[in-house]
Amino acid sequence: MAIAALPADSKLSAISLDAGLLAPSFSPEVNSYSVRVGSDADFVAFTPVARESSAKVTVDGESVLSGNQSQRIPLGAGHTIVEIAVSVENVSSIYTVDVFRPSDLDVEFQSVADQPLEVSSYETAGTGVSFSLNFAPPVGTNLMVINQTGLGFFSGPFNNLAQGQSVDLVHQGKNYRFVANYYGGSGNDLVLEWANRSIASWGHNSVRQLGAGISGNQYVPVMIPRTGFLEGKCPVSVGIGAEYGMALCADGSVAHWGNHSGSVVPARMGDGSPMKRVVAISAANSQSMMLCEDGTTLVGHGGFYSVSPTTRGVLEGKTVVAISKGGFHMLALCSDGTIAGWGQNGSGQLGNGRTSQNAVTTPVAVVTQGALAGKSVVSVTTGISHSMALCSDGTLVSWGANNHGQLGNGSTTFSSVPVNISGMGVLAGKRVVGLSQGAEHFSVVICSDGSVVTWGRYPDGQLGRLDYASSNKPGQVASDGVLLGKRVVSIASGFMHNVAVCSDGTVATWGSNNMGQLGNNSKIRSNVPVEVYGNGELYGKKALSAAAGTHTHVILAEPDSGYAAWASGHQGVSDKRQFSDPDQDGIPNLIEYVLGGSPGSSSTAILPVMSGERDFLFDFTRLASSSEDVSQYFQYSVNMVEWHDVEISPVTDSRVTLGAADGQGRQAVRVTVPKVPGEKMFGRLKVRQP
User: Fold this and answer.
1) Is 90 exceeded by the pLDDT of residue 151?
2) What's the alpha-carbon Rg for the chain, to the nearest Å?
3) In what order do the strands lie in the sheet with 329-334?
4) Which candidate, 502, 501, 515, places its Cα nearest to that of 551?
5) CA distance 326 to 79
6) CA distance 211 to 220
7) Cα–Cα distance, 407 to 400 (Å, whole number)
8) pLDDT (tens digit per residue) in 13-71
9) What average pLDDT does the segment 612-631 reach?
10) Is it the case that residue 439 has pLDDT exceeding 90?
C-alpha cells in the first residue's frame, strides 16, 4: 500500500493585532485586509498564528515565531501596507494588511487657485480640519479643500466640520464667511463655498415661476427674496421645470417656487415622512429628481416627492453619485462609472440597446460594450429624448433621438446604444469638461479652453453659431462679440436658449427670446451670444451657475461690504452703477451711498449744509463704513475755478471733525475752514472709489 505525503500548508489560522479590527474578518483563504486605527496610534504590532508549527513567518520583513507578537511597526498618516509572509518547505503565502491611520488636515489658502489636496478618495471620518486664509478673496471665491478624482462620496464629514456648516476665515482683520460643502466641485469634492448668495431670475413668468413674487414675463433679471424659507440659506445649485424653479441649499434642504404660488416653500415627502438630506437636484418638464445623502433617488411634482424607482433593477448594490432628469427619462451615474436609466425609451434614450413604446419603470443599464467598452463615465446629461455622457479618459458619447442631428455624429439616425463623438467637428484636439442638453433637440459642451461647442436643432438660434449647414456636427459658439476674451465655466440649456456663466462672473445668453429668456431687455432672439443686462440686479455680483427652461435662474455671489453691497440691498433699481442717477434727484449713486440715501427715491434731504460767519462750516452725515472703500474730500473755492482739497477719509486733516457712529452706522462730519475776508466761499463734496 502506498502512502502519499500531505502537501505543505503555508496558511495562517489567525491574525490578531494590538489596534483596530481586520476587515473582513480573518479567513485563511483571504489574503487582503484593511484595518483602521485611531489618529493617536503611532505603532501597530501583529500576532500571526501558522497552521504548521514548522512554518517560517515574517511580518514586514522581520521574522516572528508563530503565536508571538511581531515588532512594533511605525505608522505615518494615511495608509501603511504591511506584508505577512508564511513559508513551509517550497510553499509560501503572503497576506497584506492596509493599515489606515487618519490624521487632522491643516489647510492654508494662499490664492484663489490653491488646491490643497487632490486624491482619488479621502477618508475624513475620525479626523479634524483647520483652515487659514492668507489672501483677500474676491467676491464669489470658492475654496477647494479636497478634490476627489474618483467618483465616490466622502466616507463621512470631518469631526469638526458638518455639511452646510458656516466657516469664518479672517485675513488682515476682515472676516470672510464660507459654507462647507462635501458635494461641491464635480459633485464629490470638499469646497468652502462663498456663503452670501442670492438667486436672480428672468424670462417666462405666467405662473410666477421666477419666484420673485411678481407677475408677468421679465426681460431683465429680478431677485428672489431671501426671506421665509430661503432666509439664511446658501443655494449651491438651481433647477427649472416647465412651470417652477427649485434650489438645493448647502444644508441639504430644497426650496420650490412657481406653479401659481407667490411664495418659496420647502420640498416635502408626499407621504408626510421627514424629508431626506439632498445632495443633487435635476429638473425638466413637470417633474424633478433629487439624489439623497443615503443614496436614494426621489421624483416629484409640485414640491412633493416619493422614492423612485420603487424597484432598483440594475441599481441594486450600487451607489448613485449623480443624476440627470430628461424630458421623459432619467439617468443615474453610479460610483463604478456605469449608468442606469428608466422612463420613456421610444427613441432609445435609455441607451440599453432597445426601444420601447411603454415607460420602463425598473432601471436598466446603459450598454457598456462598443463606445463605452472599458470606459468609466464621470458625467451625464439628458435632453428631451437624447442623452450624453463624458468618460474619465475624455471620451464623449451620446445616444437616443437624432432627427435634428443632436447626437453630433454627423447623421440623423437615432441610436439606442452610445456612439462615440469624441473629436467630431471642432471637438478635434479639444478636451470636454462640461455637458448640457436642450429640450428642443440640441446639445452643448464646454471645453477646457473655455470655449462652447454646440450641435443639433438651430431655428431659434440656440446653437449660437452661424454655420448651420453642418449643425449635425459639433461647431463652436461665436466667441468674438460678448464672449471675446472670456472663459465659460458653466452652461445651462433651456427649451430653446442657452445660458453661459463666465469666469469673471458675467452671463451670456443666446437663442429664443420671445418671453425675455435672454435677459437683455428685449424680445428679439439672437443667433450669437448677448450679454445679460448687468447694470441692475446683477451689478457688483458674480454669477456662479445657472439653470434654464423657458425662464432662467442664476446663483449669484453677493458682496459682503462696500458700495456693491449697499447697491445690492436696494432691489428694483434699474441702474446701480456708481455715477448713475436712476431716481433723477441730481445725486449720483456713489454720493447717495456715502450720505446714506436711496438710489430708488429722491434723497435731497441728505445733502451737506454750509453755514458760519467767521468760519466756513460744511456739515453732513455719512455712513461711517463708506470710508473703507470710498475716498472723500471737501473742496472749497472763492471763484469756482481753483479748488482746494480737505481730505475727509481717511482723516489726515485737523480741519475735519468726526462724530461717533450711531446704532445705524451713521456719523456726523464737520469741515471747518477759515473764511477769506471779502470773498464768497463755495464748497462741495468729492467722492471717488479706487
Assistant:
1) yes
2) 32
3) 320-325, 329-334, 339-345, 356-365
4) 515
5) 42
6) 14
7) 7
8) 999 999 989 999 999 999 999 998 888 889 999 999 999 989 999 999 999 999 999 99
9) 94
10) no
Q: Which three cell numbers stand for residue 42?
A: 503611532
Phi and psi dihedrals of 426, rounded to 5?
-75, 0
Q: Is the pLDDT of residue 652 over 80?
A: no
Q: Which distant-in-sequence residues (6+ apart) come within 8 Å of 525 by Cβ?
A: 460, 461, 511, 512, 513, 514, 518
> Would you call 684 exposed, middle or buried from its count of C-beta atoms within 10 A (0-12, 13-18, 19+)?
middle
Q: Are 399 and 391 in contact (CB under 8 A)?
A: no
pLDDT of 5: 53
Question: How far apart are the C-alpha atoms of 275 and 305, rounded to whole Å?
Answer: 9
User: Checking DSSP bridges between strand 91-101 and strand 32-36, what pairing results, if any?
Assistant: parallel
Per the document, the length of the chain is 690
Residue 634, strand partner residues: 646, 685
Scored b (16 or more CB within 10 A) or e, 535-549 reads ebbbbbbbbbbbbbb
HEC letters along 293-334: CCCCEEEEECCEEEECCCCCHHHCCCCEEEEEECCCEEEEEE
- Are 548 and 494 spatial neighbours (Cβ–Cβ below 8 Å)? yes
Greatest Cα pair distance, the chain, in angstroms, is 141
The full DSSP string for 538-559 is TTT-EEEEEEESSEEEEEEEPP
Q: Over the range 408-438, which residues count as b (16 or more CB within 10 Å of their CB) and which as e?
A: bbeeeebbbbbbbbbebbbbeebebbbbbbb
Torsion of CA 282, 283, 288, 293, to 10 degrees: 10
How many CA atoms does the CB half-sphere of 574 hold within 13 Å? 9
Look at residues 544, 559, 570, 561 and name the one whose alpha carbon lies nearest to residue 248: 544
- For the CA atoms of 306, 307, 310, 313, what is the dihedral angle to 10 degrees? 150
Q: Locate cell 464629490: which residue? A: 188
Sign of the dihedral through C-alpha 137, 141, 146, 148:
negative
Cβ(59)–Cβ(81) under 8 Å? Answer: no
Per-residue cell: 324: 440627470
Q: What CA–CA distance (Å, rounded) separates 44 from 687?
A: 68
Q: Which residues pair with 444 in a beta bridge?
A: 436, 454
Main-chain dihedrals φ then ψ at residue 593, nearest 5 degrees? -65, -50
Yes or no: say if 26 and 37 are a contact pair by the CB < 8 Å rule: no
363 cis-preceded (ω within 30 degrees of 0)? no
- For residue 504, is it left (φ>0), alpha (ψ between -120 and 50) or beta? alpha
Task: Give dist(CA 413, CA 472) in Å, integer.
Answer: 11
pLDDT of residue 365: 98
Q: Are 199 and 213 in contact (CB under 8 A)?
A: no
**Three-state secondary-structure class, residue 465:** coil
